[in-house]
Specification:
Blueprint (H helix, E strand, L loop, with lengths): L10 H12 L2 H13 L3 H29 L3 H8 L4 H34 L10 H6 L4 H18 L2 H28 L2 E3 L5 E3 H9 L8 H19 L5 H6 L8 H36 L9 H8 L2 H37 L3 H21 L8 E2 L5 E2 L1 H29 L1 H8 L9 H23 L7
Antiparallel strand pairs: 1-2, 3-4
Helix pairs in contact: 1-8, 1-12, 1-14, 2-10, 2-12, 3-10, 3-12, 3-18, 4-5, 5-7, 5-14, 5-15, 5-16, 7-8, 7-14, 7-15, 8-12, 8-14, 9-12, 12-13, 13-14, 14-15, 16-17, 16-18
Amino acid sequence: MAKKKNSFSGSLGFVLAAAGSAVGVGNIWRFPYLCAKDGGGLFLLVYLVLVVTFGFVLLTTDVAIGRRTKENALRAFGTLHPKWKFVGYLTFLVPMLIMTYYSVIGGWITKYFFEYLTTSGRDVAEDGYFTSFITEKNAPLIFTGIFLALTIWVVYRGVEKGIEKFSCFIMPGLILLVIGIAIFSLTLSYTDADGTVRTGIQGFLVYVRPDFTGLTVKGFLEVLLDAMSQLFFSLSVSMGIMVTYGSYVKDEIDLNKATNQIEFFDTGVALLSGMMIIPAVFVFLGRDGMASGPSLTFISLPKVFQAMGGAGHIVGLAFFLMLGFAALTSCVSVMETLVANCMEVFGKTRKQMCVMVGSYSLLTAVLICLGYNVLYFELKLPNGSTGQLLDVMDYISNSFLMPIISFLTSILIGWVVGPKWIVEEVEKNGEHFSRAGMYSFLIRYIVPAVMLVLFLVSTGFINML
């Protein structure tokens, strides 16, 4: 099979690009609030176990499929087995859905960064600011357009000159910012009106110490489901991205080592993000602030930065710069997956596909933005939550498609093609795949069972809770 013209220049470029895809808004925004909601250290413990088991299996599978077939996700599964090409179509749907709203979230982040860059940031800490902003008709569209234009520019430049070069520049800066703010959070202290002193170290202990108080089977299942959902969101698995990136990996690269490094980067940033956000929120807003859920980033954190005084403005600016970096690297990977697939399907150039995919992304992003004003509605979802247009797209991609794609992939690799197919690809250069036995057992027995249960529970087909 002919090798794809596009490729990463080496292992470092692939690892940083893949880590850039994995390290996104999910790590810095979603991980901390889920951790705070689900008992701190308990969520951490469950998540880490899932990373070294399910995360390792799903990431290795996606990357190995891409490199061995040298095809993007749309065609890779058909190359494995003609009757399973429909899985490639399902994976193509995931980035299509995610692209409709990811640039909108990126636009929100861009707006907050702009506010901290040009003002004191006092306004964004006011009650109702975030709701007022997203319900406007024009401002969200402008900032979404700016974010989307940056994404298109990086993807247009290609794999090595665009994605790899951008990731090699952005990722080290992002990691340094996360580490710096995390260390600063640990030094914070605050005395409230009744004289109670709260410190960053106390907040850190709340973050890492498992809380088993009142834990029930139902509660543990909620933690497990949240952690598994976060795993999909965080590692960019079961959405075609890592299959596409894997197709750009040269044969001489040690695949086992590279995937281990991606896991390390992604998990490390997630853990540091929790250490960065949870102690700071605990210091200034207490445990009630930690329970603020998805609004933690755009509503609670600006209040924390405001309470820090003069330093808060600098920290807020650095935080939203870092969050913008993370969102951009992830959005680039989503768009690259769509562009790479469409280039082969339609036989067009990268420039032409960037225009087409960019136009689709802009049109759908406009609809998502309007979903908070002129197209506003509330829909009850099968998992029991209520959401707007953005929430519907997120639900279909994350709660419906990703679990079923993982289930089907595990059946294909575990029982049709055979785990040996993946093991051989990982050991192509004579490298030892130390977790080959664990991989084979998990992909055949554990992953299909758990993914099926996750799909049934998250889509409301059964009520385990």
